[in-house]
Structure formats: structure tokens, C-alpha cells
Specification:
The protein is mainly α. It has 2 domains: 49-231, no CATH class; 250-403, no CATH class. It contains 17 helices and no strands. It has helices at residues 2-23, 26-48, 55-68, 82-85, 93-104, 106-127, 134-154, 161-184, 187-207, 215-233, 253-257, 266-277, 279-297, 302-320, 331-335, 341-369, 373-403. Helix 1 packs parallel to helix 5, helix 7 runs antiparallel to helix 8 and helix 14 (302-320) packs antiparallel against helix 16 (341-369). The longest helix has 31 residues, at 373-403.
Length: 404
């Protein structure tokens, strides 16, 4: 069964790598580099304003660490057909699940490593601990995450809901005690207790459990995990595994009625209707608008605010460009006497409206976050120019490249 899991894992990784080339594109890397650099710059300046022994810093760190322990799910790689074809092998499935558990521990380790590296300067300022204690904190957090995954694995067995809730409550108590001891007393003490609780939860959640598998629950959990991954990938490229959901949204009909019913507005109506009633593009637009707005609210420097807003305007527009090809295989658009250039005109109109609204929202936010009127004017003009050059310059070039 170990070989079976490794074979399934290789296929899964190969499948995901095909999508990663679209996710880790130049635009995404550039934006993340800029955002992380800006956040790091402001984070460093904020730390310089704190006095040694800043008590609230340890509280914030504790909350961040507890939240980060919930990142990463148990990866079973179960397929819907497994409940039929693997049912005769249920007794051997423990070997399969042990391999799956080992693999599940890898991704959370690197997530915790990154989060701990980010919060460690705050820990040093708040508690006065040395940077060398980083490794004790890392092993403590990873031990707690391993135990959390043990609890996650309990859910795929029958009649384990109550036991899982009790185990999670016990784990939460251990987490608070271990992290509190690590932050306010001795980090090595928290590491020792963390190792002990890993052994305890392994015995409670795995060795003493001898009940049949809940195949349906295991498959549902895995499908739910994959769906969240595909939702993220869908921000960058089309994912066949995600079916588009259409909602009526009658309250948005007045916006569609503003488009006059004539032949020249056919594609404009189709594109606008897809954005307003579909979760794919409408949800993407709203999420990026909110994220950009929240970031701008906490930015008090002119050039950084200009860069953040311009990047989000570009990112929103870039992610909406695949809308251009949504109706190219719909037969009715081929039968109806429509000129091909109407698609470009309609796409530019829609993007001009959406990005202009985005720019206005960002301008309203920076008017609160920036204190100088000259800074507000420079940033506002920058947002409007970014919208203009993106729609009039980049969109025709990009759509022509997509069509070839």
C-alpha cells in the first residue's frame, strides 16, 4: 500500500505542476515580491517604535501561531471510486494512511517556518528572547501541528465525531500551555512538552483506534481540500475541475438594464452578465478589490500607496482578461451577424468601467490613509493613468496575443 500511495502521489504532483506554471507567472512573482518587500519595510519600521518588553506583541504572536496551526489539512488523496474498489483492502489501508500522514506533515512545516521567521523579530522585542530560540519554537509548533493532523485523521473513521471534538479541545489546551511556556518562560520547556504531547496524541488518536473507515467522509474531505486549491488556481487560469456556478442575483438587474439592447452591445451584455451572475469573475473582482482596499487603508506613505493601488488595478484587469474568450465556442455567437472587433470594444468598455470604479474606491481609501493633499492628488492621478494605459494600451496588445 505504500507503493500504491507513492504512485498516486506522483500523479497528483504531476497534475498540480501543470497548474503551477500558470500560478507562478512573472506577474504574480513581481506582485508578491513588491508586497512582501513593502510589508517587510513597514514591519521593520514598526518594530523600531516598540519598547523592549512590549507585552501586547507576545499576545499578537500567540494568536498568529495558533491560527497558523490550522493551516494544512490531512491529505488522503482518496478518489470517489475508492469506496468500491479499495473496500476489500480496508485492513491494509492503515499502511496507506500512515504514508499519507507523513506526506501531510511536510507542507505545514514550511508554512510554520515562514510564519515563525516573520514573527520572530516581534518575539525578540516583546520577550527579550534570543534569535537562537527560533529552533525551539519551530519544533514546538511542528509538534503541535502533527498532533492536529492526528485529530484531522480521526474524522475519516466511523463514529469519531465526539472523540474528535474532545481530542481537539484537549489539543487546544496543550497548545495554549506549550506556547505560553515558550513565550514567557523557557522555549526548551515548551519543546519538551510538545514532543510528549505528540506521543500522547499518537496513542490516543491512532494506536488505540480500531474502527472501520468512513469512506464517504474521507472522500468528501479530500474533495473539499482539492476544491480549495483549485479555487486559488482558478484566479490565474481556467480549472476544469471547478464547475462555474451561476446565481440569479436579481438585485443586480438594474445594472444590466443600463446596457441598451442593440446589436453593437451584444458582447458587452454577455460579458457583463457573466461577471454579475457568475462566481468566477465577479467573486474574483470583489475579493481583489477588498484585499487591495484593506492594504491601502494601512499604508501611510505616498509612493508605496501608489505602487500597491496600481498593482492591484493591473492584477484585477489581468485576471479578467480570460473573459474575452468565454463565448468563442458558443454556436449562437457564430450564427448571429456580429463583427469580431465588437468583442474587443466590449471588453475595453467593461474593463474601463470596472477598473475606473476600482480606482475611485482606492482613491477614497487613500484620502483617509494619506494626510497630505499633494500626496492624495499624486496617487489619485496615478490610479487613473494606470486605468487608462491598461485599457487603451495593454488590453489590445494582450488580447491580440491571446487570439494568436
Amino acid at each position: 500500500m505504500k507503493a500504491f500511495f507513492q504512485d498516486r502521489l506522483k500523479k497528483h504532483q504531476k497534475h498540480m505542476m501543470r497548474y503551477m506554471q500558470y500560478v507562478l507567472n512573472d506577474h504574480f512573482v513581481l506582485i508578491m515580491f513588491f508586497l512582501l518587500g513593502g510589508i517587510g519595510f513597514y514591519y521593520s519600521n514598526w518594530l523600531k517604535t516598540l519598547t523592549p518588553g512590549y507585552f501586547l506583541g507576545a499576545i499578537v504572536t500567540l494568536i498568529i501561531w495558533i491560527a497558523s496551526l490550522h493551516i494544512g489539512r490531512f491529505v488522503s488523496l482518496a478518489h470517489p471510486a475508492d469506496q468500491i474498489f479499495l473496500l476489500p483492502k480496508e485492513k491494509q489501508m492503515r499502511t496507506y494512511l500512515s504514508s499519507a500522514f507523513s506526506y501531510s506533515c511536510i507542507f505545514p512545516f514550511f508554512v510554520l517556518l515562514f510564519i515563525l521567521a516573520f514573527t520572530m523579530p516581534l518575539v525578540v522585542v516583546s520577550t527579550g528572547k534570543s534569535f537562537i530560540t527560533f529552533f525551539f519554537y519551530l519544533f514546538s509548533l511542528w509538534g503541535l501541528k502533527i498532533s492536529h493532523l492526528e485529530i484531522e485523521r480521526m474524522s475519516i473513521f466511523q463514529d469519531m465525531k465526539k472523540a474528535r471534538k474532545n481530542a481537539y479541545f484537549l489539543w487546544l489546551i496543550f497548545t495554549l500551555i506549550i506556547l505560553a511556556l515558550s513565550l514567557w518562560l523557557q522555549p526548551i520547556l515548551g519543546t519538551i512538552i510538545s514532543i510528549a504531547q505528540v506521543v500522547l496524541f499518537h496513542k490516543l488518536c491512532w494506536q488505540t483506534m480500531d474502527v472501520p473507515l468512513d469512506w464517504e467522509e474521507m472522500i468528501n474531505e479530500e474533495q473539499s481540500r482539492l476544491h480549495r486549491i483549485y479555487q486559488f488556481i482558478n484566479l490565474f487560469t481556467d480549472v476544469p475541475e471547478i464547475s462555474t456556478k451561476i446565481k440569479r442575483r436579481k438585485y443586480l438587474d438594474p445594472l444590466l438594464k443600463r446596457i441598451s439592447f442593440n446589436q453593437t452591445n451584444t458582447y458587452l451584455y454577455l460579458y457583463a452578465r457573466r461577471v454579475l451572475r457568475g462566481n468566477e469573475y465577479g467573486g474574483l473582482y470583489v475579493r481583489l478589490l477588498l484585499i487591495g482596499g484593506v492594504l491601502l487603508y494601512f499604508v501611510g506613505e505616498r509612493w508605496f500607496a501608489l505602487g500597491i493601488g496600481a498593482l492591484f488595478i493591473y492584477l484585477i484587469g489581468f485576471q479578467l482578461l480570460p473573459l474575452y474568450q468565454q463565448y468563442q465556442y458558443v454556436p449562437i455567437t457564430k450564427l448571429y451577424p456580429l463583427k469580431e472587433k465588437q468583442k474587443l470594444v466590449a471588453m475595453k468598455k467593461l474593463l474601463r468601467l470596472l477598473l475606473f470604479f476600482c480606482a475611485v474606491v482606492f482613491i477614497g481609501i487613500v484620502c483617509f490613509s494619506l494626510s497630505s493633499w499633494s500626496d492624495r492628488l499624486i496617487v489619485s492621478v496615478g490610479y487613473l493613468l494606470m486605468t487608462f494605459f491598461f485599457v487603451e494600451g495593454y488590453v489590445p496588445y494582450r488580447l491580440k496575443k491571446m487570439a494568436n
